[in-house]
Amino acid sequence: MPRQRTIEDLSVEELRRLLVEKQKAERQARIEHFRQTGRLVAAASAPAETTARTQKSTAPGEAGDQLRTPDSRRRKRSPQFEKVLLIAEIAAVLGLVFVLLSGFNILRNLNRETASLLTQPTLTPTPLIMALVLPSGHTPPNSPGGVQPNEAEIPEHLRPLVQSLANLPVPTPGPEQAVRVQISALNVDAPVVQGDGWEQLKKGVGQHAGTPNPGKDGNIVLSAHNDVFGEIFRDLDRLKAGDAVTLFTNQRAFTYIVQETHIVEPTQVEWLAPTQDSMVTLISCYPYLVSNQRIVVRAVLQK
After folding, report:
1. Most buried of 11, 27, 264, 291 (most Cβ within 10 A)?
2. Averaged over 120-129, what is the pLDDT?
3. Is residue 242, in this structure, part of any structural domain at all?
4. What is the DSSP letter of 4?
């Protein structure tokens, strides 16, 4: 009698076959159970219909139609569609970069404009209207036309400007302005008026408009005629260094000491320019009864 084989004696293939047979037996038992309970018809019809549809769908001549569905066609076009999407994404990114750069440029321009509005402009000083010739110019009394303002000293195209300046209002006298000048070496004692135009010099010694008051820092310019209207400054050429020129205000007197004397041309208006030191500049026509030049005497405040 042959020996009964155990599980250990079986090969792998035999074990697999036994396992499959056992599973088939169990499945058959379940199917029989379902048939007895009446549930096999619904369960069995579905596989049959599915098998029929599968067979029908795989019938000859129709397999290609089933493969060429819209989804299949879309899948076939997907590489091109991906390229379009990629191009669209790149265009969107480039558009975003362009918008950002444009916004940055606009913001920078706005900041620049705002900064320019906030920055205070550099103030350009308005040039002062300076005299074209030194004051007290006139024709000599023995000239054919008599005594009158000497317009020949002024360039013809600038004469209207000089005439307009002559009509400027004279400043109102104040308590610190000069009211009198004394030059002991020349026996001069004369009133000082504001302005050195033709009409002002008829009344005495004229103070050039815009020059400081006595005792203040700067250049006080006083002028008078030497051969008409009292000949107040006729002997300015006799002054020498060390002589005193005294200016009076309504409050006190200031003494200036003569430093230098110059004979200059009427157009040398730099003698009217402001100075840092406190000084007085005396101006008159020169020489006597000719009046084609000017005599300039400068004196410095005695402290």
Report:
1. 291
2. 51
3. yes
4. P
